[in-house]
Amino acid sequence: MAQSLVNDADQCGAIPHWVNDNVEDGVMPGDAGSLIVAGAYAFGARAFDTSGALKHMIKMANVPGTACNGVTTNGGRASYLQFGYITNGEWGQASSTLEYASSDFAISQFAGQLGNSTIQKMLLSRSAYWQNLLNASLPPPLIAARNSDGSWIAETQSSTDNYGEGNAGQYTWMVPFNPVGLFAQLGGQLGGGVAPERVFCGVERGDEPAQFLYGRRTDLRGAVAI
User: Fold this and answer.
1) Are 182 and 133 in contact (CB under 8 A)?
2) Residues 166-210: pLDDT tens digits?
3) Quick one: how many helices (H) and strands (E) in the chain?
């Protein structure tokens, strides 16, 4: 799979992230391809062109308008690089910022394993951009969208306009590479009042039906150890 993604990038210009019938259609946000390749390497995959993969990942992370067969694969990257969060160029600007923070972290770890400490340090620092959208003044604190002048866009836990197929309450938890830092900023072990069982078990389910199961429990309080 990893080599197939590298082959795709060699042929079309970028690691694809939403392919339909072998054609990149750019429907969904984020940089899932880089996450998949970096994750495969982290779990032991080695039989692919790692240097070629990293070259394409670096381009995706740093060159706005990178495209696969003319279809942009990193929408919103220009504002992400300029402001430290997405303001335009991609739907779900708050959630898409979190998508790029996750891929920046993944690429940084991949680069470090390949000996590229410059890229590792740069993207590791950039992966902290999720903090730019954590509005600690809200009760409870939430990942919220911002305007280009730095002002906050009014959000509640059930806001969906700036979140891809979800809501603010759900996406506030999407910092999988730094849960300790996230929990600390949310106010403690279970995040200062943003109850995870409410977020994932149907009370606040965004614009999609709840799909979350955790050991067949609907109450996470007895199932989560932090």
Assistant:
1) no
2) 999 999 999 999 999 999 999 875 545 555 555 555 544 455 544
3) 9, 6
Task: Record the pTM.
Answer: 0.86
User: What are phi and psi for residue 142, nearest 5 degrees?
Assistant: -140, 155
Among residues 192, 201, 171, 182, the alpha carbon closest in space to that of 127 is found at: 182
Please give the class, per CATH, of domain 1-190.
mainly alpha
48 residue type, one letter: F
How, if at all, do strands 142-143 and 134-135 pair? antiparallel
Q: 150 forms bridges with which residues in the sheet?
A: none
Q: Which of 180, 197, 178, 192 is nearest to 127 (CA)?
A: 178
Q: Phi and psi dihedrals of 71, rounded to 5?
A: -100, 120
Spatial contact of 45 and 28, defined as CB atoms under 8 Å apart = no
Q: For residue 217, what pLDDT is reported?
A: 36
Domain locations along the chain: 1-190
